From TrEMBL:
This protein's UniProt keywords: Disulfide bond, Glycoprotein, Immunoglobulin domain, Membrane, Signal, Transmembrane, Transmembrane helix
PROSITE patterns linked to this entry: IG_LIKE (PS50835)
Pfam families: Ig_3
Keyword Glycoprotein in annotation: yes
Protein name per Swiss-Prot or TrEMBL: Ig-like domain-containing protein
Extent of the signal sequence: 1-30
Domain of life: Eukaryota
Ig-like domain span: 72-157, 162-246, 259-344, 349-437
PANTHER family: CARCINOEMBRYONIC ANTIGEN-RELATED CELL ADHESION MOLECULE 5-RELATED, CARCINOEMBRYONIC ANTIGEN-RELATED CELL ADHESION MOLECULE 8
Length: 585
């Protein structure tokens, strides 16, 4: 019988009562006066007695007027049952006949299901297989034609559990079947399972067979590597005699320390080499991340990461691959990042530009005033900085440095200047040139012409001196040969014989005199010039004879009878100063 049937009987009773009251013709004194609230009740086991003029007349339940019924009672096969192992039977007993039995569970009409059976008269309620949700308060209600009456509550307790459970770690992170915790932290293991009555707990740590705790939770202070391992918890229910066991592996993660990047040891050259960076760390279980210029590095064909992210390979180095690079080791509880590493990549030199000023543009020609100063700059992008050499065409002089400074311009500074930039690491070199033109008034003779003239004069003087020295030596040698080949023949005198020229011509000259007639008294002597070089009858001497010769008192006189003679008289017959004397013509 359902709730709708009960309310149907309820309204039928009210209508019948109203009809009877209408049909009766009672005196006014005998009539009942209904209270303005006919359902004002007084409580008693949830049954209410309404007042009609304050006089109790009958019992009432749920606002319905009924007759007197006996209170039903419930009997139960067992008040405590084990889930899925036992069945329970309820019996509703009442003294009244012709009543309908209604069952209530937790004060609401019972909802029947396949695990329940109800007898034909409704008094027997059987739960075939008890479940935990069947635990609670049961009541039965006897319903007559004009009345209902409900029994006292009966309690059914269902024992169940423990249910399957998992060990939870409040301060850790699950990683598959392993839970990771940070070294030095406080770790709390807990179990949460449904069971009635409450279960007993036993914790088994690592390989220890004896229980270490009987609480639902287990706490480890300042966990270390020694606490790493498998933890087991056994949960038992003394009423159901069921046991449940669960296990959890705990891994202790070290507090991460700073890693460092192993830099390359070779010289890095743009487009000519690749480089491998290695993130070195002692934490084998930690993950590794790479950062480039402070941002997470995204791998590509140019930047390739190894399988475990421990190495980064940069293929085909570019000049902008200098970094900085960082690597970070991490786990769920901590992170540590390395110091930044920058790469030095050699490149260049790029295009060489020659400028007149440090901030001016590149030039190919430069005009400058005579006697002014000129500074040229050579620039080229290069790493490391390029080495610069300046040269001037048709000159072997090399100037080193980025600047070429000419303090005072002359005409000789004109020409094409070449600047070569070289990089010793990349073994590359580039060059550029500039034409320098000097403008200003020119002199009649250039400096080169003047220098040429001066050199010509010096050369002429040197040649003249050399020629004179040569001629002098040659004549001296010729005179020596001639004297050796042609001895001097002296003029004969009556008292002396002819003697060859025995003395050297180095005593030349001596005074020579022409033959004179014998003077009366003092002999007059005529001075005679030395023989002409054209006569060829005397030897060349080193000196010219003196222009004036003193008279010699020893000059002999000629005989009186012969005032002229075919021979010249020797002035100094005793001295062999003549090489050869020819007769007078």
């Amino acid at each position: 019988m359902g709730l709708a049937d009960l309310w149907g009987h309820h309204w039928v009773g009210i209508l019948l009562a109203a009809s009877l009251l209408t049909m009766w013709s009672l005196p006014a004194a005998a009539q009942l006066t209904l209270d303005t609230n006919p359902f004002t009740t007084t409580q008693g086991e949830k049954d209410a007695v309404p007042s009609m003029s304050g006089t109790p007349w009958a019992t009432q339940t749920h606002g319905r007027f009924i007759g007197l019924l006996a209170k039903p009672t419930i009997s139960i096969s067992q008040n405590t049952a084990t889930e899925q192992m036992e069945q329970v039977t309820f019996y509703c007993y009442t003294k009244d006949a012709n009543v309908t039995i209604q069952w209530f569970f937790k004060d609401v009409p019972l909802v029947f299901h396949e695990r329940m059976q109800l007898s034909t008269d409704g008094k027997n309620l059987t739960i075939l297989t008890v479940q935990r949700e069947d635990s609670g308060i049961y009541k039965c209600e006897a319903q007559g034609f004009l009345h209902v009456h409900r029994s006292d509550p009966t309690f059914l307790t269902v024992n169940y559990g423990p249910d399957p459970f998992e060990i939870k770690l409040e301060s850790g992170i699950s990683s598959g079947e392993v839970v990771e915790v940070i070294e030095g932290s406080t770790v709390t293991l807990s179990v949460d399972t449904r069971s009635h009555p409450p279960p007993d707990y036993s914790w088994f740590l690592l390989n220890n067979s004896l229980p270490s705790s009987s609480m639902r939770t287990f706490t480890i202070q300042a966990v270390s590597k020694e606490h790493e391992g498998m933890y087991r918890c056994l949960v038992s229910n003394i009423a159901t005699h069921l046991l449940r066991l669960s296990a959890l592996e705990v891994r202790v993660l070290e507090m991460l320390t700073e890693p460092h990047i192993v830099p390359p040891t070779l010289n890095l050259v743009e487009n000519a080499s690749s480089v491998t960076l290695t993130c070195q760390t002692s934490h084998k279980e930690a993950g590794v991340l790479w950062f480039l210029r402070g941002q997470a590095l995204l791998p590509n064909k140019h930047l390739v990461l190894s399988a475990n992210n421990r190495s980064l390979v940069i293929h085909g180095l570019r000049r902008d691959d200098t970094g900085p690079y960082e690597c970070e080791v991490w786990n769920w509880g901590s992170r540590a990042r390395s110091k930044a590493v920058r790469l030095t990549i050699s490149y260049g030199p790029d295009q060489v530009d020659i400028t007149r000023g440090a901030a001016s543009g590149a030039v190919s020609t430069v005009k400058a005033e005579l006697n002014s100063s000129l500074t040229l700059y050579c620039q080229a992008e290069s790493q490391p900085g390029a080495e610069f050499q300046w040269t001037l065409e048709h000159s072997t002089t090399v100037y080193m440095g980025q600047q070429l400074i000419i303090g005072t311009l002359t005409w000789e500074h004109q020409g094409v200047y070449n600047c070569m930039a070289s990089n010793p690491l990349t073994q590359l070199a580039r060059s550029a040139s500039v034409l320098v033109t000097v403008v200003g008034p020119r002199s009649s003779l250039s400096a080169r012409v003047i220098v040429g003239i001066a050199l010509g004069i010096l050369i002429f003087i040197a040649l003249t001196a050399g020629l004179g020295y040569f001629l002098y030596n040659r004549n001296a040698k010729r005179f020596s040969r001639k004297k050796a080949e042609d001895p001097v023949q002296e003029a004969a005198t009556p008292s002396s014989a002819e003697e060859p020229c025995a003395e050297s011509c180095s005593n030349w000259p001596k005074a020579m005199y022409a033959n004179l007639p014998e003077p009366q008294g003092q002999v007059g002597v005529k001075e005679k010039d030395p023989p002409s070089t054209a006569s060829g009858y005397y030897c060349h001497g080193p000196r010219k004879p003196s222009s004036t010769v003193a008279l010699d008192p020893l000059v002999p006189t000629l005989p009186k009878g012969n005032t002229e003679s075919d021979y010249e008289v020797l002035v100094n017959p005793e001295q062999n100063i003549y090489c050869q004397i020819n007769p007078s013509v």
